[in-house]
Write a structure and sequence with these properties.
two-stranded antiparallel ribbon; Collagenase (Catalytic Domain); 283 residues
Length: 283
Amino acid sequence: MPDIIAASRRRTCAKSEALPIRRALHLSCLLLTLLAGCAAPAPPEPEEEALLQDFHTLAFQTARPVLGSDGRPRPRRDHLAKWTIPVRVALVDGDSEDLRAPVPPSFRRLAEAHLEDLAGLTGLEISSAQVSQANLLVFLGADPFAAARRHVGLFAHKIADRASYEALLAEMERSATCFGFLWGGWPSGRSIDFAVAFVRADRGARTIEGCLVQEVTQVLGPMNDLAPTADSVFSDSGRQVALTARDRLLIRMLYDARLSPGMGWAEAEPLAREALRELRRGG
């Protein structure tokens, strides 16, 4: 429309009788502008809103209490947490006192394949490391809670209040199958800098895979669970033991460069929406 009006001006300046036509064009343009300004915004796209709600649930809340810097359990979090440093992973036999004891080759292969997948989704540098150099410890044990107590010395330097840690562990022992803890990112707002995950070894292969995939993925930042009906490994229904297409999209959203550790939802929501739209357009 602006180009058409400019062209009309150039044509009508030579003849005064053409001025009423110019005035009519101005009025038409003004009317169209007012109507456009009063038009209702387009309604939200349902699938986009559902994905954003799942992202908010995963990235800004927690399924179980998290230990704060004062050692007290916190019921939830209100800001985004993720890794921004290389992740060095050690797989540990949680049933053995010997840290050199190898985990079963089948579990190692499963863990390495999942970690490679996560590296591709997040853009993080993820590699294996010795226990003493690792900032992500993955324990495999028949009793993961016993493993958490047996090997607490490996991450005791991160526990602000041992009594609160033990109380939280006992609370989870009544209902959890596998579990994990992370440090940094909560409640400080920094990036995550250390995590542990505990996977059960006394169940079938499907449960072991589901525990590994869910817990190792969740200690990267998406700490909450989704509803039992969700088509997601983040649902505790057990229907999925591998990352679904939806899960993979949500992880890529979390690790989009526009989203930074410490962001609250009000700041992150428009950036997450923008990232989501780009990811969906790109397939």
